[in-house]
Structures are given as C-alpha cells and as structure tokens.
Design brief:
The structure is a single chain. It contains seven helices and eleven strands. It starts with 15 loop residues before the first strand and ends with a helix. The radius of gyration is 18 Å and the shape is globular. A hairpin with a 3-residue loop joins strand 2 and strand 3. The strands form two sheets. Strands 1, 4, 5, 6, 7, 8, 9, 10 and 11 form a nine-stranded mixed beta sheet that branches. A two-stranded antiparallel sheet has the order 2-3. About 30% of the residues lie in helices and about 25% in strands. It is an alpha/beta fold. It comes from Roseateles hydrophilus. This is Transporter substrate-binding domain-containing protein.
Length: about 250
C-alpha cells in the first residue's frame, strides 16, 4: 500500500518520504551497497511508520545523503525529509509538524587524553571545529565569527580529521557519534565526549509545494501526539534506547 489516500485532490503517484543514508541508529542505508529504492532503517523509520499508521497511512521511503534529502524536499520531489533540525536558515523553507520526533544532544568530541572541564559553545571560540557538510547546526554556532569552522563529507571523516590533528574538536550527535566510535577500532578509545553545544529536537521537513505536504505534516503531527498520549511513543523510545545502549 502506498501513501495514496486523498491528502490532496489530484496528487499524482505515490507520496514518498526521504531518509538520510548515514545516521544510524535513526536513519541509515541497509548497507553501503544498497540502492536508493531500499528503505532506510532505524528509529525514525519505525516511528514515522507507527505515527502515520494511526492516521491510516502507510509511507514509502527513498534513502539518500542528507544534503540531497533536504534539497529533494525543498524542490517537492518528495513530501518530506528526515531528520532535520529547525534553524533560522531553513525555518521558512519547509513545513514543520508538532510535536517533534525526538531530541538528541549535539556533543563536542575531542581526542582522548585531552582532559578538562565540560565544554560549551563559548569554549569553541578561537578553536578549529569540524562539522559535516549539509547537516543542520544551531544558528548560534554557525553564525559565530570567532569559531573556525571546517567541513567534512561524513561523520566518519570528521573523526579522521580530529585524530590527525587537523581540527581541535568535532560536533557529533551523541548517540550516533558513540555508535560510530565504538563500532570501529580506528576510533574506539581514541575519541571522548568533551561537552555539549545544544539539545536539539528533530523533525520531518515537509515540502511546502508538494501537493500532499501540508496535509501530511498535519497528519503526522496528529499521529505523534496520539502516540504520546496513549503511551506507545514512550514504549517505542524506551525499547530503542535499550537496544542501542543509550548514554
């Protein structure tokens, strides 16, 4: 079954949502060689399916790099893209549902052995800090002229930049960051969390100009709200945190 219910009269073909391919455990490609047509896997996918099911809807997914995912939603090639944070730069480009899907800490990671107090955003001023190209970061961080920002094409490359000394710190969301570090002997034991920039909520960025974008954003928000009221959201989140060893 495709998401072809009468969200908007005259909508052509199935309505698709795009999920990013490299942000486990929330949304990731099945494997490095899996095609776009294979749905992503992760907590976000499970949650989206469950929330839309409460509204009698079943989505289809494509799996793409995050920057392309957001471009596809902005151009209405898909009905929405996940997982996005809201910033001053993208706030008016998409439709945002309420409530958000979940929250994740944006953490500051540094090299092991460089001990010190818990760092905050202000401590990054004058430092070289690397981020992943195309990801959404807090406006306060992106617009601070005192922070030297560098970009990498993936979170894995961020970690390599850190360990080779090209930057002082990198920014990774806490759970995805730890999973990536712990999964590889290249990084395990060599990178530590040094502090926090922010605790951010994540959304599906729905396409303003897609025929089903407005109605789908409302339907998804209703489904999430219903899951929060009936306890199914809390159960899903608890199961997810147990599975991944949430820190």
């Amino acid at each position: 079954m495709t998401l072809a219910l009468p969200l908007a009269a005259g909508a052509a073909g199935p309505v698709l949502l795009a999920g990013e391919d490299d942000w486990a455990p929330y949304s990731a490609a099945e494997s490095a060689s899996s095609p776009q047509e294979v749905p992503p896997k992760g907590f976000s996918v499970t949650l989206i399916r469950a929330a839309l099911a409460t509204q009698g809807l079943t989505p289809q997914f494509v799996t793409v790099p995050f920057a392309r995912c957001m471009r596809m939603a902005k151009a209405a090639q898909v009905a929405g893209c996940f997982n996005a944070t809201i910033t001053d730069d993208n706030r008016d480009d998409y439709l945002w549902h309420q409530p958000p899907m979940f929250e994740e800490e944006l953490s500051i990671f540094g090299r092991a052995g460089e001990a010190g107090p818990e760092l905050r955003l202000s401590d990054l001023r004058g430092k070289r800090v690397a981020i992943t190209n195309g990801y959404t970061y807090p406006t306060e961080f992106m617009r601070d002229p005192r922070i030297q920002r560098f970009t990498a094409t993936s979170d894995t490359n961020l970690l390599r930049m850190l360990l080779t000394g090209r930057v002082d710190y990198i920014l990774l969301n806490r759970t995805p960051g730890w999973m990536r570090i712990d999964a590889s002997p290249e990084f395990r034991g060599k990178v530590v969390r040094r502090g926090i920039v922010s605790a951010d909520a994540f959304w599906i960025a729905f396409a303003k100009t897609h025929p089903d974008g407005p109605a789908l954003a409302q339907a998804f928000g209703r489904g999430l709200a219903q899951m929060r009221r009936d306890g199914s959201y809390a159960r899903l989140l608890d199961d997810f945190r147990r599975q991944v060893g949430y820190r």
